[in-house]
Amino acid sequence: MVNEIDSESLSQRLADTEDVLLVDIRTPAEIAQGMIPDALQLPMHLIPIRMSEIPKDRDVVIYCRSGARSYQACAYLMQQGYGRVLNLRGGIIAWARHGLPIVAPEG
User: Fold this and answer.
1) pTM for the model
2) Is residue 102 part of a domain?
3) N or C: where does the chain have the smaller number of CB atoms within 10 Å of the terminal CB?
4) Running DSSP on this structure, what letter comes out for residue 65?
5) Active-site residue, 74 included
6) Distance separating alpha carbons of residues 66 and 105, to the nearest angstrom
7) Does residue 105 lie in a domain region?
């Protein structure tokens, strides 16, 4: 079973400067529409070859557009031995719906 976090809880953890890594697994075209500040851009299909960029010793919140792909990514990472991954319930849609910050990607 995949652990999840909602937008409000994640926002509070980030405001409290907790050590949380955000990973945006959407496509570059989706990311171009905006992303959660300070998220690592790691398209879902690249996770198996870039897994070393995801730490096992801190909480990692994975998100996509609606939460479905990120749920699958969390399940995959858990199978690979990652115990501290969380799915952002509702994805960036829920994040935006709550009026939380979205920024343009760098570069």
Assistant:
1) 0.95
2) no
3) C
4) S
5) no
6) 19
7) no
